[in-house]
Amino acid sequence: MGEPGGGSPSTQDPAATTRAGWGEARNILAVRLDNIGDVVMLGPALRAMKEASPGARITLLGTPGGSAGAALLPWVDDVITWRPLWQELGDSGRHDPRRDRALIEELSGRGFDAALVFTSFSQTPHVPGYVCYLAGIPLRAGESKEFGGATLTAELRGAPDELHQVERNLRLIEHLGFPVRDRRLEIAIGEDARAAVPGLLARAGLDPEARFVLFHPGASAIARRYPVERAGEAARLLAERGWPVLITGVEREAETVATVAAAVPTAGVLVGGTSLPEYAALVERAAAVVCGNTLPLHLADAVGTPLVALYAGTDEVEQWRPREVPSRILRRPTACTPCYRFTCPIGQPCLDIPPEEVVAAVAELAGEPNPVIHGAKSAGVAGEGDGGAEATGSDPLAGSERPRDGADLVPGVLDTEPRRIAIFRALFLGDLICATPALRAVRRRFPDAEITLIGLPWAEDLLRRMPSLDR
C-alpha cells in the first residue's frame, strides 16, 4: 500500500489510515516559518488539535519574528526558533550548513512523532518536510502544489490560492482527521497585559479612560503601507472629529510613525516598548483600529475590535481579510492586483484612498468619540420644541469641535462658582461606570468645589477611590 497522500493506488481509504496515525501522535511539531500574524492565524488549527488530543504536546517551530506569536496561543507548549535559509530573500551571503544540521539534530533529539508543515499558498512544505524526515519524524503532513517525492507522508492538494489562511490551516488538520468545532480566531490576553493598558495610554499622553482610535501606519512590506502623508491627514481629521488617536509601530517604523504623528500634535505615540500581549490588549481596548493588511488586522479580528483596513493590492483580500469583526476594507481595484510585491513602482494606486473616507469608515463602525451620557443635551437643545436650526448648530456631536469642560451642557448657571455639588447616581455598577466621563467633566469645570456623589451603599468603597469625588 502506498503512503497516505502519496497518490499510489490502495484498497484502503488513505484518509482513514492517516487519521489513525495522527490521532495517536503525542509529541507534535507545528512548523510555521513566517511572521507573527501568520502564527496568530494558526491558532484555530492548534486549538482543534488540542481539543481532539488533549494529552498531546505541541511545539511551534517559528522564525525569530513569528515565534513571538506563541505568547498569544495557549495551545503551544514549547517553541523552537529558527531562521531558515529557504525563507531568506535573494543571496544573503550566508553559507553555514552546520546551522541547518544543528536544527536537524535538535529536532531528532526532541523525539517528535509527527510534524505538520503549515504554509501559505505560495510556500512549499517540502523543504521543511525533508528536514523533518532527516530528523526521523515518522509522520509529516503539508499542503503542496508541486511534486516532492516522499518528503511528506500525508500530502494535501487542490486548495485555491484565494482560500483564507485560517481555512488553509484548518483544511490540513481536517484532512488528517482532527475535528474542528470552532473556526474563529482566538488569542489569550492575560490580566497582567490588560492591567498595563492604562499606564501605556498615560505614557503616550492619552486619557486612560477615554475611547480612542489605534492607528498603525506601518507594515513589513513598503507596498502595503498607506501613503504616509495621507495617513497623517487621516489621523489629523480623526483628532479634529474629537477622537484621541494612538499611533503605534515597531522600532524599524519609528520614522513612519514620527511623520504621521507630526500632523497630529495631540496624538499619542507608542513605538515599541510593549510586549505582544500588551499590544493585543491595546487593540482590544481601542474603539477602532486603522491599519493595513498586517498584524493589528488579525489581532482586531481575534478580539472583536471594529477595523478599518487599508488593504493594499499586494494580496487577494480573501486570503487574509478579517472574518468575524465589524470591518471596512478600503482599497481601489487595479489591473495589477494581486502583485505580491514588496515595493510598488507605480505609486500605489490601490491605496488611493482619501483620508476623509478613512474617517467616515471609523465613524460608521465606532460612532462618535464621546457619546452623550444618559440624555445630556447642549444649550441649543435644552428645549427640543424651540426649533431645529439652533439645535443642529450647537449639538456637540454635530461638528468637529468637542466641548472641553462641559460648560455648554449647563445653560444659565455657570456665572457663579458653587462651593458644594451633590450628584445623585443611585443605580447599578454599569450606570455608575457610564457616568464617570460626566464626573470628570464636572471636576474639571469646578476644580475647587467639594463634590459629593449620593448613591447606593454597595458603591461606597468604589466611590471613595474615584479621584473626581470628594465624598
Topology:
Layout: H1 14-23, E1 27-32, H2 36-40, H3 43-52, E2 57-62, E3 78-81, H4 97-110, E4 114-117, H5 126-134, E5 139-143, E6 154-156, H6 165-175, H7 191-203, E7 213-216, H8 228-240, E8 245-249, H9 254-262, E9 268-271, H10 276-285, E10 288-292, H11 295-303, E11 307-310, H12 317-320, E12 327-330, H13 355-366, H14 388-394, E13 420-424, H15 429-445, E14 450-454, H16 460-464
Parallel strand pairs: 1-2, 1-4, 2-3, 4-5, 5-6, 7-8, 7-10, 8-9, 10-11, 11-12, 13-14
Strand content: 5-15%
Overall residue-averaged pLDDT value: 84
Q: Taking Cα atoms only, what radius of gyration do you get, to the nearest Å?
A: 27 Å
Query: What is the helix content?
Result: 25-40%
What does the largest sheet look like? Answer: 6 strands, parallel
- Which strand order do you get reading across the main beta sheet? 3-2-1-4-5-6
Number of helices: 16
List the helices and strands in order: HEHHEEHEHEEHHEHEHEHEHEHEHHEHEH
What overall geometry do the principal axes of the alpha carbons give? globular
- The end-to-end span amounts to 81 Å
Report the structural category: alpha/beta
Tally of DSSP β-strands: 14
Q: Which blocks of ≥5 consecutive residues have pLDDT under 50? A: 1-18, 372-415
